[in-house]
Every structure is written in structure tokens, then in C-alpha cells.
Fold:
Amino acid sequence: MTEAAGDATEPRRVKVRGIYTTAITRLLGEAGHDVTQASPPIRRRFDREFPVAPFDALIETGPDRQGVAVHGTPTAVDELRSTLTVAVDTLAWRDPVPQHAVYHGQVTETLGGGAVVDLGVDAPGGHDATGYLPYGETDDHVTVDDTLIVQVTAATAPWGDDRPELTTQLSAPGGLGRLVAGRSDTRVRGGDEAAARELAGMTDLLDTSTPDGWGVEWNRDASEAGLDALEASLDRASETAGEIETATETPPAAPATLSTPTVTDWVWFGRASRFALDDHRRAVTSTMPGHHRTKAASRAASGGVDLAEALCSFDETDDDEFPFTVVTDQYGPTVGDRIGIDHGKPDGRLVSLGRGEVTDKESDGTVALERAMSAGGTYDALDVPREQGDVAVTKFREGRWWYPTVYRSADGERKGTYVNVCTPVEVFPDGVRYVDLHVDVVRGSDGVVRRVDDAELDEAVAAGHLREQTADRARAVAASVERALE
Structure:
């Protein structure tokens, strides 16, 4: 997708989908941007019509509901990234393997259902980015060391384990549809035959031409668009198709990047961000306390929110707190459950610190988690050995910017306390979630209190992984914890 005409201060046309749509639609309107291709519920909720036109960016909820992906032109995505930064714990990262990008890849491994393809791109953590090519997405037999031209069909969040999905079927996005290489007809994705026939007829009326060897595939929303919008979409797709054709005609040695029609940013919403989004949604429609916090927990919890809001009316001035006990009693975790510690990193990656048993849950949002530790090595910053029989007891309180872990030996001797400073803790049914902010406070078995990893926090800010505002909050929290432990 090429840049839209005009300078960077012009309103951007944005399509929004997913659990954050109402709040983001209001945010975009306040920032002067135009929402396009709005869904019927959004039209009813805002009680107005929205244009049906090509978009400069698409905002969609990520697969785990923790945040959103923003796909679009570089300028539009940069502007929207700023608009979506609603709280101190909103974090964002540019995807090294964006949606629609085209690569000359090299197969490094074949699996049961597809092949792993080296894309020649550096990924967070210092490793090479790879994609996954399902065998159904290529007509060729694929073996290790084969080289082939592939395109990203599904980008993946940096905090997930999945590889971006690939195809050898090239396409060029246009905002209301796309051009698909190797076709010559007009189709409608998700539409019926009548809609396809009508759009095919309208396509013939457009004062534009498409590149030879590329067929038109309209989105369902295109049936509501006017001729000018359809023409603009095809013009944009045709320009992108020409760029892809040029880039793939004589590709450099694999692995290599050939074309990036769009960029992708991933925006992660922490707990404070979800409540800020609640405020925006509440200004439009009845919204229960903790709406987005609950919806992010699980699909079942998301359905429960919809039911509650359909049955009950929540006043705009309702300042009730998030019903932690009610939500966790219904969806988990409860005492006896085993859940994970999802330790986010400021560069977007997610590290699992293992799973433990919930041994206690209190009404103030505190959950105690006990883990049996394996032998070997030492505990970070405590400089005491990890031994067989050691137990770690961690207490997480929903919404707190830090959490303590106490390490004890098999005979109950305290080996030390490690306090991790992080974005506000969220306790979900399958795991505790936060982003580590590097700086921590430890108290050794001798009672000496030390603050550690300030330099790593500074480096994260310098690298652009954290905003200075977030880092300042982390430093202030660490200072308070240090005083409390002394």
C-alpha cells in the first residue's frame, strides 16, 4: 500500500475490528481521523453513517486480545501509534515481518503441515525471523534449501510463539479489495453470487486499468461503496501490484526482503490502558467496570461481558471498581489451579517463568502462586544456589506495579526476596500477565537491600522500547519498594 496523498497532518481513513473497536473509534474521531467500513453495531452505537472507502490503515485485535495490530502506510501507522497510546502502560513495537510483505525466502525445515522459511530479517532477541508456509499455500513440492517467493498473510505479535504465515500466491492490497496474481476474473470475498455479479459489472465501468495477469477480489464491504471509492481502491492496488512485479522480476539471492507494501505495528494494552479505553467506550455506550480487562481474559469472559451489558445498564458516572473476585470465581483462576507467569519484555517478547499452583486468592485481588524450583545455577541478583526442594512463593496483586517472590529452601529457610517492578499486574485464567520494566529490588538472606538493573532500564529507553514516562514510573516504584524493604 503506497502513501496516501497529502502531508502527515491530514486525517487518516482507518478500518477497525475487534473487541476494542468502540473505544478506538471514539479515539480516532477525537484525533480527527475518519473511520471507514464501520460494522453495523458501530453504526448503530454512534448513530451515524460512516464512509465506505479505501483505508490508510487497518486496526484489528490481536489473536490473544492483549492488544491490536495496526497495518498500513508508514505515516498513517506512526500517527495512529501515538493516538492509541492511551496510558503509561501502552507499549508498541514495529513488526520486522509486516502484513503483505514479500520475501525471497529459503526453506530451512519441513514439518508435517508446512515448511519453515528463513526470511533474512533480524527479529527481537537476536535471531533470524522465519515464517510458516502451509503446504496448501503453494503448488510446488517444497524441500529443505529450496528458495521461493512468499508473502505474509498473517503477521504475528512479538509476544506470541507463532511464526507469521506465508503464501506463494501474491496479492496487492487496495483498501476495499485486492489484486491477486495469476487471475483474470472478478470475485467477492465473503459475498454471494448476486453481489459478485453486481460488483463485476461495476468494475467494468471504472475508469482505471489493472495490470495484466492480476484479478480483482473485492471485500464484502465493497458492495456498499461508490464508483469513486472502488476506483481509488483499484488504483492503489494496481500501483502496489506494479511495485511487487518489479521487485520479484529478478530477486536477489535468498533470503532477502523484496517489497513491503505496508508496515505493521503491534500495540499492547496494559491494565491502565484497558481502563482508559473503558472511559472512551463509556462515553458512547453503557460499559461495565473492567469491560476491556475482562474481555481480554478469554473468549468465554468476553461473551460474559456482552451478556452482562445486554441485561444491565451501567451509568456513565459509574465508578465501581473492576469486580476481580466475581470474574475470577467465574472464569478462574481459583485455588488449586496451575497457571503460568507470562513475563513480558520491553522489546515485545514474552518469556515464561514457569507454572505454579494457586495457593490463595484474596478479595483485594491478591493471588499467591507456589512453584517448586529445579536445582542448578543461582537466583538472579541474590547470588544463592538453586537447590532441589527449593520453593518460590510469589504474590501478585491485580493492578500493582510490582510483585515479590520469596525463595525458601526445603527446610523453610529464607534464601532471599526478589521484587520485580513491572507494568500493572493482570491475573488471567491461564496466567499472570505484565511487562517487566528491568529495574528490581532484592533483599538477601542477610537482610541487605539492593536495587538492580537500572542500566538495563536506561538501555530500553534509549532503544525506543519504553517511553521515558513509563521508565520514570518504574524508577519511582523501585524507590518506594527499596525504602519499604530497608
Residues 1-8 have pLDDT under 50 and may be disordered. Residues 102-169 form a domain with the OB fold (Dihydrolipoamide Acetyltransferase, E2P) fold (CATH 2.40.50.140). The chain has eleven helices and 25 strands. The radius of gyration is 25 Å.
